[in-house]
Each structure stands twice: as structure tokens, then as C-alpha cells.
């Protein structure tokens, strides 16, 4: 475990926004979870779990929060990227599955290329999705027909109420871009997850992954600083299409703007010479919601998480 005082959060998020937390507690192993309650007591502030920071809009200024960074599974003892642990195989109605245990801190792009290389299917739609495994679980991240929760067999989580424990699928509730624990808890942190991945042809998986990446590159601003899609898609609709029709594409405040490529991506122009402010991001979000409400009578719901999380 490692505790850093007053970390600057902008550099830990893909949107490159955010002020300073009271502290960041970095966890490198499951054993570190035992020391977490005492560490949080010492730092104070409300606990916020940070993975790859790819779905976050963090406020500016001094924030009364302590950030927990569950990095278990990201590096091995030699400092190289850790690999998933193969637990075994099982036969399902449609083929053979390999069970993998993966630490919450593993980077999603690493996990994707590791599994595709070994002919393990299920994540190929998530190509180009940054972030870490814990974040993909927390958001039930999905893209091009793949999502995280259906692959999950079990989850080892820490909660302040129960400490570290393992849950089966009955222990969580997952739907489109939503994931929560079935048990009451003030907050939770994923430590590791067991995924069941169907065995398939590596060449075919690589082809599907490359095809998905081409689609993504041609329709989403993968080279801009964004936090992914800002709003969830309302049922049967595309938030991007609604925002586009409501005139939000390219709308700008300071260094923040809605992408010209896809209107549901709020982006940060870090090179324009104006300091990016969360206030501008929040004002643009409010403007976008009002525009879609006025034009279509639809209330857009945020997908991106705002920190501090209690407003
Ligand atoms: N569209 C527009 N204008 C825009 C953006 C989109 O007219 O500015 C139109 C497109 O032309 C298309 C339709 O809207 O006809 C849908 O757009 P797209 O295919 O880009 O899909 P999406 O519904 O906007 C969803 C997910 C993405 C995911 C893609 C691919 C949400 C909120 N978005 O986007 O996920 O990558 O499908 O599966 O669920 C994310 O969640 O962060 C995310 C990026």
C-alpha cells in the first residue's frame, strides 16, 4: 500500500479535468484491502474508487475525497504487466469456456489483446475502450454487442461493511451501463473478477476486433481527450443523434466542447491555451440536456460519473 498526499486528479482521468483529492491510497495486492479501513480513517474524506479514470468528470479545486486505486493485477513482481490466471475450462451448451481470474487493476486493452491472442471470445467489441477491469465492471462497459457483466462468474469485492468477500452472479445487479451490488453497502471496490470466455478461433476474433476498431475510429473521437459517451442512450434512441439534431456538435465553452465527430462525446482541448474547467464541462452538459428536453421532450441521463459523487 502506498499513500500519496493531495494528488492532482486531472492527470488520472482521460478527460484531463479535476482538482486535488486529500489523498490517494494505492492498493497493490488483496492483502492491502485489510489495511484499507485504517488508512481511510487516517486520511479522512469520502472514499472514491478510481480505476483508469475513463468515465469521470471530476470537479476543480480542493476536493474532500480520498481516492482508492485498486491496482492489483496490473503488474507482476518483476514490474511487467501481470497476466490473467487461468483457472480451468468448462463445457457450456454452445462450446467450451475458459475461466480466468483477473485483477481489477489490469488495463482493459491488455486484457483484450491477451484474450484475443489465445482465442478467448467476449471482449472483442470493447476494442479501443480504455480504463481498467474494475471500471469496466463498475460501468458494465459495453460496445459493439459485447458487455462486461455477462462474462462474469464471480467477483471479489471490498465493502466497508463486510470487508473482502466473493460474490456469485446473484450478488450483483447489472443492466445497460449499470452495475451495483445486491447487498446494502455504502460503497464497494472490485478487487478481482472471474470471467468465463468462450473458446474460439484467434484469427476470427482478431478480424472482428479490427473491424470494430475501424468502426470506432471512423465514428468516435478516439484521439481527443474525452470520458467516452457523456449520456446513456435513452431506450430505442441514440443520445448522439439527439444531441446532434439539437445542435450540440462543436458547441464550446472555454477549453471544453462537444466533439464534431460524435455529439455524445464531451472533449477537452488541452492545447488551446485556456485552462480546462469542470464548470465549463458542467455548463455544457446542462445546456445539452436542456436542448434535447426542449426539442424532443427527452431527459438525458448521465453515463459519465461526476465526482464528488454526492451532489
Ligand atoms: N449519430 C448522429 N450524430 C452524432 C452521433 C451519432 O447522427 O453526433 C447517429 C449515428 O450516425 C448512428 C446513431 O446515431 O446512426 C448511433 O451512433 P453510434 O453508432 O455512434 O452509436 P451510439 O449509440 O452513439 C453506442 C454506445 C457507445 C458504443 C457504440 C458502439 C452509449 C451511450 N453509447 O453509441 O459506447 O461504443 O454504441 O457499440 O451507449 C460509451 O458508452 O462511452 C460509448 C462510447
Summary keywords:
six-stranded antiparallel beta sheet, 24% helix, 20 strands, Uridine Diphospho-n-acetylenolpyruvylglucosamine Reductase, domain 2, binds uridine-diphosphate-2(N-acetylglucosaminyl) butyric acid, Uridine Diphospho-n-acetylenolpyruvylglucosamine Reductase, domain 1, 311 residues, alpha+beta, 3 domains
Structure notes:
The protein is α+β, with helices and mostly antiparallel strands. It has three domains: 2-70, Uridine Diphospho-n-acetylenolpyruvylglucosamine Reductase, domain 2; 85-211, Uridine Diphospho-n-acetylenolpyruvylglucosamine Reductase, domain 3; 221-307, Uridine Diphospho-n-acetylenolpyruvylglucosamine Reductase, domain 1 (Alpha-Beta Complex), CATH 3.90.78. It contains six helices and 20 strands. The chain has helices spanning 31-43, 108-117, 133-139, 202-219, 239-245, 278-296, and strands at residues 2-5, 23-27, 46-49, 56-58, 65-70, 85-92, 95-103, 120-121, 142-143, 146-147, 152-159, 163-167, 172-175, 178-181, 189-199, 225-229, 252-253, 256-258, 265-268, 305-307. The strands form six sheets. Strands 6, 7, 8, 11, 12 and 15 form a six-stranded antiparallel sheet that branches. The chain has a four-stranded mixed sheet with strand order 1-2-5-3, with helices on one face. A four-stranded antiparallel sheet has the order 16-19-18-17, with helices on one face. A hairpin with a 2-residue loop joins strand 13 (172-175) and strand 14. The longest helix is centred in the last third of the chain and has 19 residues, at 278-296. The radius of gyration is 20 Å and the shape is globular. The relative contact order is 0.15.
